[in-house]
Amino acid sequence: MLLASLTDIKSYLNKTDTSHDTLLTLLMSGVSSKIENLLNRDLETSERTLYLDGGRKYYYLPAYPIDITASFVVTVDGTVKTVNSDYFIYEQEGLLKFMYEVCSSEPKILKVVYTGGYTSSSGVLQVPDALKLLCVQQCAYEFSRRLDAGSVSTTMPNGNSGYQSGLDWLPAVKKALYPFRRTSGGI
To answer: Is residue 157 predicted with pLDDT exceeding 90?
Structure first.
């Protein structure tokens, strides 16, 4: 699933012709996947069923925002728990917080059925504008560097040479993506 559209990247690059549309679409797909991996979370909305180990009070779910209008069912050792009594949902953070630590540290004692992630329209996820822009910026960078992808140094017109790491992350993009990353608490 794409985080930005072909129109977004073409607008950013100020391109009106269609000569690179296939390549730009491929880049958008690749960059979107790289971003999803870096964020350590599933971005596309769907219903999920998770079986988690007990022994904790906080569980960071792998897909958010959590759709609180959809069914959200939590069972511990076969007993259904009640939202805002036994546990709380922080939908924007993807956090499931129990009032008390799930007693047993038994494997897969906790079952969570929920819907999380971003919806899509015309094949593009409806992510926050900041995330979309970061995807477009990284894609534009990779498009502009496509002919020197294996290069590790460049000689400037003034004779200076500098180190470049091929098609690695733009440092500013990578830094700006971290607030969107799922917390290391994981599931």
So the answer is: no
Amino acid at 184: S
* Burial class, 156, CB count within 10 angstroms (exposed 0-12 / middle 13-18 / buried 19+): exposed
Residue 140: enclosing H or E segment and its boundaries? helix 129-144
Cβ neighbours, 10 Å, residue 137: 18
Q: In one letter, which amino acid is 82?
A: T
Domain boundaries, the chain: 6-42+120-147+163-180, 46-116
**Residue tagged 């546990």 (tokens):** 87
Report pTM: 0.85
Question: Is-contact 131 176, C-beta < 8 A?
Answer: no
Query: Cβ contacts of residue 67 below 8 Å, gap of 6+?
Result: 45, 91, 114, 115, 116
Residues 30-54 have pLDDT tens digits of 999 999 999 999 999 999 999 999 8
